[in-house]
Design a protein that fits this description.
Length: 157
């Protein structure tokens, strides 16, 4: 399976991207600095099953990214998010789909985590130990590395 990051403007003949809301849940340490972030594994039955990603899913008709995130995290993890903060966007081209990923950071949520799709979850810092990570997760780890002045591999190959 090959996947690539799309850079530059759309070209004639490109597939129209599917819009995806992605939640980057971040804990803060005692001094208020950003600390661990949440990764979840893709459930059985989905493409890239078992790969680690940030929780989220496709926007439904008429939804904003925030609304989709709130719904997906309720459905998948059983939590209710408060505010979400737009952070980064990325278009990925996979054999199965072209997706535009809208990453929002989330610092506030309520409820207990329940793995409603029998996925796994892990609070991670750099370098992440969960393996393998989804191709679309790698740029996010690089953004974290830049924000945190982290040097070295962000994950296992
Ligand atoms: N949730 C999520 N999806 C990601 C990430 N990175 C990445 O490339 N993707 C891709 C994988 C999928 O092609 C797409 C998300 O679709 P999905 O199948 O997980 O969404 P969904 O939960 O709405 O799925 P479904 O109801 O259609 O089964 O975005 C990520 O960090 N999180």
């Amino acid at each position: 399976m090959s996947a690539s990051i799309v850079t530059g403007p759309a070209q004639p003949g490109d597939r129209v991207p599917v819009e995806v809301a992605v939640g980057v849940l971040v804990q803060r340490d005692a001094s208020g600095q950003e600390a661990a972030f949440l990764l979840t594994s893709r459930p059985e039955g989905k493409v890239y099953a078992g790969y680690w990603e940030f929780p989220g899913g496709k926007l439904e008709a008429g939804e904003t990214v925030h609304q989709a995130l709130r719904r997906e995290l309720q459905e998948e993890l059983g939590i209710t998010i408060g505010q979400s903060h737009p952070w980064q966007q990325l278009v990925m081209d996979y054999p199965h789909a072209r997706v535009r990923l809208h990453f929002h950071k989330v610092f506030d949520w309520t409820g207990e985590f329940e793995m409603r799709e029998r996925q796994s979850m892990a609070w991670e810092t750099l370098p992440v130990v969960s393996h393998p990570v989804l191709p679309g997760t790698i740029p996010v780890l690089q953004w974290f590395a830049a924000e945190r002045s982290f040097v070295g591999p962000t994950h296992r190959d």
